[in-house]
Amino acid sequence: ARASAISAPITDGALADGTPVPLLANLGNPDGAIEAVALGAEGVGLFRTEFLFLSSGSAPTIEQQQQSYTKLLAAFPGKKVVVRVLDAGADKPLPFLNDAHEENPALGLRGIRALRASEDILREQLTALAQADAATRSLPDGPADLWVMAPMIATVEETEYFTAIARDYGIRTAGVMVEVPSSALLADRILESADFASIGTNDLTQYTLAADRLLGSVASFQDPWHPAVLRLIREVGDAGRIHGKPVGICGEAAADPLLAVVLVGLGATSLSMAPTALADVRATLLQHSIDDARVIAGAALAANDAASARDAARAAAAQNS
Ligand code: PEP
Ligand code: MG
Q1: Which one has a higher pLDDT value, 9 or 174?
Q2: What 3-state class would DSSP assign to 165?
Q3: Distance from residue 124's CA to the centre of ligand 2 (Å)
Q4: Separation of 152 CA from ligand 2 center, angstroms?
Q5: Is 90 exceeded by the pLDDT of residue 254?
């Protein structure tokens, strides 16, 4: 029985009523693609590109980047692949992008802000992505569906800046990460120009609770079950529904099976996580319908703190599993 369970085909992510919830992989290197596919990833929801930049003291060439992106795209024919442009600064310092000393780097020149200050790096990255996209168009299994998004978007203006520059380079689907409370609160405006939003719950939690995600003494605040975080996610989910645009989740929260159900109940249309988390999330989603997920999310939203939100969701989920 065990052998047949292992060799049984992995089904696509879905709720009990059949509502599809694509389950995607977070990857930090194209080398992880094969394993992600084997674990049932239906595509890539977050490809972190920092690895290309962290290994040397200077930016990689367009050619080096193109090779990496081509390898990634070629592993996912016909599938969605969401690439995040460089997210430097704060927990990912890069001396050649920003060498100014900052007292509070998480609140400093990071993400899209750092890329705008060194726009050549952004332009080179978009060039390499467009080239990789073109290079994979003629593969026998067909191309991947390339989506590109920017990290740390805080304003509508940054959204317009990024989507315009990405489209200049031929990127067809350009979106933003929602990981700053301002962009969650303005998601309805942001989704007027962005093609999609992807919520980074790690940073969204850090910035909502004003607790450095790297600092052990405030680690207890770094809990995406906090109802304040859930309310912001609901804002984005509602905005996605109004505009008919996808809202993914790519922070660690999506890897918690019960929280994954809550996130779908709040309006997330896909979930991206470390590939090893896919199986548990897939199994838990299958136990609840979309109506159940909304009820479970409502129970969590009504709580006062993270621990009671988790308990309330668990109690609500027990009624339909
Ligand atoms: C996040 O902030 O949730 C996220 C996915 O980005 P990173 O963890 O790379 O900052
Ligand atoms: Mg982040």
Answers
A1: 174
A2: helix
A3: 22
A4: 7
A5: yes
CA-based angle 236:238:243, to the nearest 5?
95
Torsion of CA 283, 289, 292, 298, to 10 degrees: 80
Cα–Cα separations (whole angstroms), residue 219 to 180, 222, 305, 316: 18, 5, 15, 27
Question: How far, in Å, from the CA of 251 to the mean position of ligand 1?
Answer: 5
Which residues are near ligand 1 (CB < 6 Å)?
A: 46, 48, 87, 179, 200-203, 250-251
CB neighbour list of residue 112: distance below 8 Å, 6 or more residues apart? 85, 150, 151, 152, 153, 158, 161, 162
Summarised one tens digit per residue, pLDDT across range 266-295 is: 999 999 999 999 999 999 999 999 999 999
DSSP state string for 226-292: -HHHHHHHHHHHHHHHHHT--EEE-SGGGGSHHHHHHHHHTT--EEEE-GGGHHHHHHHHTT--HHH
* pLDDT tens per residue across span 127-137: 999 999 999 99
Instruction: Supply the pTM of this predicted model.
Output: 0.96
User: Which ligand 1 atom sits nearest the alpha carbon of residue 251?
Assistant: 3
